[in-house]
Specification:
Belongs to the peptidase M67C family. By secondary structure, the protein is of the alpha/beta class. The chain has 10 helices and 11 strands. It has helices at 3-19, 31-50, 54-75, 84-123, 134-142, 165-172, 225-238, 279-288, 309-321, 347-352, and strands spanning 218-222, 244-252, 256-264, 266-270, 273-277, 292-299, 326-331, 336-342, 369-371, 375-378, 384-387. Strands 1, 2, 3, 6, 7, 8, 9, 10 and 11 form a 9-stranded mixed sheet that branches. Strand 4 (266-270) and strand 5 (273-277) form a beta hairpin. The chain binds zinc ion (2 copies). One zinc ion binds at residues 298, 300, 308, 311, 329.
């Protein structure tokens, strides 16, 4: 294998670490939320590992490691107050599983990417463009328009470079044995980009799975979710104030998530914003009822249903912790309900490396978010509203 192919492969892995693996931390979210929700990352990483979906698995193990080794440590005020049990449990998972597997997968991916690079050199005289997302390569393989059409920019990173973080963990935890070569190919996707459009009042969405990240579990949404949420939002809506809530539910038979609750936290809102308060009450409710957080819902009292730049940043951590997590936006004025997900190939890397706050512009071509294709409304399911504002 040539030196240039190895170099290119290492750059692709580095791109993943910098663009797909940092879960942004909100200091107002109780740290227990991250400890609890991150269990899902490991379960999903294990699932992808066992099914030989190495790239996805690598991303999720790396998210887990980065979350605890860097992000929470650096950005959450309660990091030092975490219970010894939680701290030791996470340390053990990183030491015995997340880190060794991430290292193993990294080697496999470098072999795979180097092979891709060699193949590409043979089949094309085009220069290899960097930084390169592996997802883009997949799109290219199914897209006749060529790679330039899906090339994305890589915004500067606000954090310190990540190329040392695995090495830090290695130093702190374990030594990794050599690995065999990769035998399995990455999951292919043939889904083309979908422009965000709106779903008029709960028209069922039953599109096929996949959002560029491989297979998604289905997300089942109670059919009465819009009606119920509009009822609790009514007082705010009348005054043109947004209302937000958290979607909670459970994972059913390994194939789907089911939303069963909306937990409405104490909050303060305006015409185009909503800030949660006392999030610990919400986290406590979700935890004591053995629910998991599956996304969020909010109203746009004066506007159509879309995700603003602030909404995109709000949504990112939900989807990085659970790939299937969704953002539901309801516009009572325009009679729209839409369910959105960030695109894995552009939305996640661009938003996770954007350091701007407040309302701001993002490049949006290819789209940063799309109508979620993995959701289904269930008319037999009733949504329970838990209103913590009283
Ligand atoms: Zn919004
Ligand atoms: Zn941004």
């Amino acid at each position: 294998m040539s030196e240039s192919s190895i170099k290119s492969a290492r750059e692709r892995v580095q791109w993943l670490l910098e663009n797909q693996c940092r879960i942004p931390i909100r200091s107002t979210t109780p740290i227990s939320f991250y400890y609890k929700t991150s269990d899902n990352l490991i379960e999903e990483a294990d699932h992808f590992y066992k099914t030989n979906q190495f790239e996805q698995s690598f991303i999720l193990y790396s998210r887990y490691i980065t979350l605890f080794v860097e992000e929470l440590k650096q950005h959450h005020p309660d990091f030092l107050n975490v219970s010894v049990n939680d701290r030791e449990r996470v340390k053990e998972i990183i030491r015995t599983k997340a880190f060794p597997r991430a290292e193993e997968l990294k080697s496999k991916l470098i072999d795979k990417y180097a092979q891709d690079y060699g193949d590409q050199q043979v089949h094309s005289r085009e220069n290899f463009i960097k930084p390169k997302s592996p997802f883009l390569l997949r799109q290219k393989s199914t897209n006749e328009h060529g790679e330039d059409k899906v090339k994305i920019s890589a915004p500067g990173l606000g954090h310190a470079p990540t190329n040392t973080h695995h090495e830090q963990v290695r130093a702190n935890y374990v030594q990794i044995p050599a690995v065999e070569t990769m035998e399995n190919h990455l999951v292919q996707t043939n889904q083309e980009s979908i422009k965000p459009t709106y779903d008029r009042w709960q028209k069922p969405i039953t599109n096929s799975l996949s959002n560029g990240m491989g297979s998604f579990r289905r997300m089942t949404v109670p059919n009465d979710i819009t009606t119920k949420f509009l009822q609790v939002a009514q007082r705010n809506t009348d005054r043109s104030i947004e209302t937000c809530g958290i979607l909670a539910g459970y994972r059913k038979d390994n194939q789907q998530y089911v939303i069963t609750h909306i937990v409405v936290p104490k909050q303060s809102g305006g015409p185009d914003s909503c800030n949660t308060e006392k999030e610990e009450e919400m986290v406590e409710y979700i935890s004591t009822h053995n629910l998991i957080t599956l996304g969020w819902i909010h109203t746009h009292p004066t506007q159509t249903a879309f995700l603003s730049s602030v909404d995109l940043h709000t949504h990112l951590p939900y989807q990085m912790l659970i790939e299937e997590a969704i953002a539901i936006v309801i516009s009572p004025k325009f009679h729209e309900t839409a369910i959105f997900s960030l695109t894995s190939n552009t939305g996640i890397p661009i938003i996770s490396t954007c350091r701007k706050t407040g309302f701001h512009e993002h490049a949006n071509n290819p789209p940063l978010y799309v109508i979620s294709s993995h959701t289904t409304y269930d008319i037999g399911l009733q949504c329970k509203i838990v209103d913590l504002r009283a």
